[in-house]
Specification:
Elements (H helix, E strand, L loop, with lengths): L1 H33 L6 H13 L3 H19 L6 H21 L9 H25 L5 H13 L4 H18 L6 H31 L5
Helix pairs in contact: 1-4, 1-5, 2-3, 2-7, 3-4, 5-8, 6-7, 7-8
Length: about 220
Amino acid sequence: MKGTVKNKKEWVIRLCLLTLGLIIAHLGVTLFLISSLGTDTFTVFAAGISNTIHIPVGLCHSGIQCILIVLMILFTKNYIKTGSFICCIVGGPIIDVFNWALGRFVTEESAMPVRMIVMVLGCVILSIGMALVIASDAGTGPNDLVAVILTDKLRKFQFRTVRICCDLFFVAAGWLLGGTVGIGTIAAAFLVGPIVQFFLPVHQRNIEHILSAAGCEK
């Protein structure tokens, strides 16, 4: 009984950390969007498909996520956890809240240096949040899981290399299908993977300390 309680406590802590990571990551996405210098790589892909089949981008984004979850449940079950479904559900509302709060301060009319700084901050903050989501081990968004799964399967390649390749695929496919690519998109394709890899072990160590302090040692 005691061990079961411990596991439940650990799971709750990991879900809370995942939620914190989602909030941080989507703050980064929002900064990316309000800079008006290009969307993140997966959104380019979703926009391209949206342009091809003529449905709203948001609906297309969610649809692709759902398709990926189904495929991963069928072929790589161990990667889909509760947090994966949370990632699909809460991302949009979080972005809407941050966009409402911050969108008035940075617009397309803002000075280019300001927009560039906001865009770079968006990349870094997005990566820090994404690394925390992955490190929480409570589940990861389906689009981000693609790079995680491929890294585990291929083994010889580091996460940052696989992530860059996945991002470039999303950008190229999205662009060919009519999605919009900007300087921010290119920056995200090359910066997110390496920054996530840098912060992953940092978050993992911090999470171990938190779990240990909470009495969740294995």
